Every structure is written in structure tokens, then in C-alpha cells.
Amino acid sequence: MSNDLLTLEGVHTHIGAYHILHGVDLRVPRGQLTMLLGRNGAGKTTTLRTIMGLWKASRGRITFAGQDITALPTPQIASRGVAYVPENMGIFADLTVRENMLLAARAAKNASQIDEQRLKWIFQLFPAVEKFWNHPAGKLSGGQKQMLAVSRAIVEPRELLIIDEPSKGLAPAIINNMIDAFAQLKASGVTILLVEQNFNFAKRLGDTVAVMDNGQVVHSGSMKALAEDEGLQQSLLGLAL
């Protein structure tokens, strides 16, 4: 059996008249954290949205846990154990933190039915979620909203967590907290696919990496190897570290 939980083979995506993905090949190994890097406009967010079925692949194949999910609607993909945190976080601002969490806990009819042990674990990862439990989510800071978005994604057990730019706009202290939380999630057995622009964030967390440019994956391999090769960083990402 393949060690890859998620694979994309030759995936093309059109949005209206625009051809955004040009044959994406991507492998996400089970139990690892895979970084998806690239310049702005490279196709990273489109890749995540295509995996989730929010935009349909016009060609190619997407496989999750050995099953073809290319043509499945988004709710069916999610029900297989895939959670997606978009760049805009998708927080319901007028609802409390508790109500946001309850919406994501599909098996619970009220907050008391959310798995108590799992909730305690989430509170340990993100103390702000417990602190602001009864506060309107719209009143939270950017970092606290990001913590809530990830907490919603993991309030039920997931096999794969897909997150788009979790460190964007966050203070360094919050970023360190987020890194610790993702490391704990990975240690718990969750497979993570993470789009990130912060290279220092990426190299601290990533096991494997794929770099996109112009709608294709142009490099894949070990995150450690990329982090140690400044010439490769410069050519792929335009970075001078």
C-alpha cells in the first residue's frame, strides 16, 4: 500500500476562461507535514480548492486514501476525513466561539455533546479558544481567529488537514504558538498539507515540500534539503536568506 495519503496526477483546473493549473503532480505522505510553497499567483490556493472540490479539475486525477475523489462534491470529500482552513478563515463573526465550534462538530447537537477529551486537547493547543468561548468570534484578534479556524477543523478527528497561509499577518509570538500546535497535531497522527509564504515557518515544520510556479509543481523533495540550499531557494522562490 502506498505511503501517500493524497496524490494529484496531471491535474488541470480552469476557472471560467482562465487555465490556472497546468498538470499538477503532488504527493502528500501519510503522517507527515507537506509544505506547498511558491510565489504569489503560482496556483497554490487553486490547488487546495481543487482538492476540496470547490473548483473542479478539468483533467487529471485526485486520490485520497486510495480512492478517486476527483469528481466528488465538497461535502463528500469532507466526510472522508478531510478538513480545510481557507486563507480568509471562514469565521462566522456574529456567532460566539462556542457556536462556531458547534457548527463544525457535526455529531453534536449542543456544546455539551462535543467530545470532552478532544475539547480539552484543543484548549491546550489554543488557550484563547477556551478563554473567549462565549465571546463573538468577530471580536477576536487575527491570531485568535486563526486559532479558532484550526480548532474548528480538528474538533472532530481528521485524517488530513489542509490549511492556507496560517501565519499570514500574525505576530511572531502567535506564529511560534501555531508552530507548536501543528507539531503536536502531526505527532497525533494527522497528515497536514500547508500553504505558506513564511519560509522560516515552513522550514521549522515541514517534512516534505513541493514548490509551485505557473500552475505546476516545479520541485518536490525534503524540506530540510531545500532549507539548506540557498541557491535553490533563490531560483525557486526568489528568496535571499
From TrEMBL:
One of its GO terms (biological process) is L-amino acid transport. It holds the Pfam family ABC_tran. Signal peptide: none annotated. One of its GO terms (molecular function) is ATP binding. Residues 6-239 form the ABC transporter domain. SUPFAM superfamilies: P-loop containing nucleoside triphosphate hydrolases. InterPro entries: AAA+_ATPase, ABC_transporter-like_ATP-bd, ABC_transporter-like_CS, BCAA_Transport_ATP-bd_LivF, P-loop_NTPase. It comes from the Bacteria. Keywords: Amino-acid transport, ATP-binding, Cell membrane, Membrane, Nucleotide-binding, Transport. Belongs to the ABC transporter superfamily. PANTHER family: ABC TRANSPORTER ATP-BINDING PROTEIN (PTHR43820:SF2), HIGH-AFFINITY BRANCHED-CHAIN AMINO ACID TRANSPORT ATP-BINDING PROTEIN LIVF (PTHR43820). This is ABC transporter ATP-binding protein. It comes from Ramlibacter humi.
